[in-house]
Amino acid sequence: MQSSYTTGHRWVGIRIAFALAGALLACMGRAAAQGRAPVSGDEKSGRVSCLRGEMEGIRRGFHGEMAVYMKNLSTGDEIALDADRVMETYSVIKIPIMVEVLRRAEQGDFSLQDRIELKAEDKRLGSGMLAGLDAGLRPTLKDLVTLMIIVSDNTATDMLADKVGRANVTRTMAQLGLKKTSIEYSVLDDYRQWYRLIDPAQPLATPAEVYRFPVDKYPKEKVDQASWMLNDDPHVYFGHSTAREIGVLLEMMTNGTLLSPESSALMLEILKKQRVNDRFPRYVRGAKIAHKTGDDQPRVANDAGIIWFQNQTIVLVVFTARHRGTTSELHEAVARVAAYTVRQYGGEVASDFRP
Q1: Strands 284-285 and 239-241, sheet pairing
Q2: Which CATH number fits the domain that encloses residue 56?
Q3: Could you list the residue range(s) of the whole structural domain that residue 108 is in?
Q4: pLDDT grade for 27, boundaries at 50, 70 and 90
Q5: Is the pTM of this model over 0.85?
Q6: How many CB atoms lie within 10 A of CB 212?
Q7: For residue 206, is it within any domain?
Q8: For residue 120, what are the CA distances in angstroms to 130, 137, 140, 175, 211?
């Protein structure tokens, strides 16, 4: 026979379950109705609360650290979860590099149609295509910007950052009010620092020595340990920013106020051609997405961009750090943030998305 204490607590549990179910249905109802009629202040507040709760649920189950910034430019809704914390951007910092290149082109320092010769010492490890091509190729600056963004080409990145100056990228961001956004190391120096941690005895003075470093001959545990050490060193970084500051940069770009409207439009068109689509686009359907990823998998997989669907324009930035699971789990968490966001505003998500 059950005691009244046990029975009473069971009823409390049932009431809580019904309350949670009701809240979930209310969230789903708001998401389904979005776009068909104006919403009241209370409904808008509830929608933001629901989406924040969904995002916080992802963060609670995430085996690492995650910062999120979301702003719906059509409604003014905004969510910031640890969004002012400075984090390693990895290749998301290539957006500020692109901004500086176009800014300098606008002021007449050079033309985007100018050509720059690819030299053997320019070749960089990691993502991209140029490192696999013959020296002597002469892409335009616009070609290099495009490759830097859509395939995250590291060779193009250092060629452009060397041309405009990394300190100038940081200075321009500060002038835009983005005082926590900076670029420090080149791709070359980032790899050099990593390899020194793996084997301090190896010669790494020249670009060729870094490029030819025999990383495959070292135990995986030693390579991973060096990567963790590099990630945990606050003085060694490729790019630093916050989820909010990258979001503000993208908002200015979307509004056509970052540079000239023409340059802003060109940057958005390049970002729309992104080839690395295993995060924000994973579950989103019927939308246009302009975005840039940044990686050190399985520890970091960032994504930052603008999503257009129906009558909505949403800026979304997700930064991650110190993830302790698999790369697929890392990508899945970032993809779910985008899916919940689009779904909450009445957009279409893939049939295999499971809330």
Answers
A1: unpaired
A2: 3.40.710.10
A3: 52-184+237-349
A4: low
A5: yes
A6: 13
A7: no
A8: 10, 10, 17, 35, 10
